[in-house]
Here is the input.
Amino acid sequence: MVLDRFRPLPGLKRWLPAAVLVVTGVLGLRNLVGVLHFALNRALEGDFAVYYIFARVGIVHGWGALYDYAAMRQEWLALGSAFLYPPLYPPTLAWFVAPFAALPFVIGYALWNVVLIVSLLVTWWLTAPPSSRVVRLAQLAFAVALPSVALGLLLGQVVIVVAAAVSVCWWLLRYKRPFAAGLVLSLIALKPQLALLVPLALLVAGQRRAFLGWVAGSLVMLGVALATIGVGGLQTYAFLLAGSGHY
Here is the structure.
């Protein structure tokens, strides 16, 4: 859209994408350096450390203890961190992070960052509009230069994975695979508040098969939650979630 505004100026239009790429590339590189510095010096203060402890509670103490504060504190101390933040996430996040939490923190953290980078690249590749290689690279650099994306990478936030799930859902809808799109969309259960209205929007838009795919995937996760943490665990999660408004 920006390039279309400069259509009457062909000379400017030729070098503008390269200029945007250079500027956003410098800003994006600066953000990546900040991400690396945080990873090397303050990794235990990031969101992944909270995810890691959350999953460790399930692995070590049993999934029914996911919201047991004493178990959380024990795992925090075992990790050697003075930073204690009781996680308030759905059990789906603990299951997703469990393969990383089964590893030493440093290795799990490194692999988690690989997942985030791949998720970012998938989101960019599927959603960036077709254009020249320079323009597409500029779009990727612009994304990394955004403070919100950089912060997500720095803290290791699962929001980047959720964005990738929504992007894959959109891509599958384009290729007429609505039920599969809905199944992928059910991964928003990792952090539901980020995209909770997307399934409803699909239903309103007439994408009933996609909505049913999301319902099917979500019901499977609910069934697994009932089997692992039980009704009592879900009630504890709901109680903590309701009380979080007072914090």
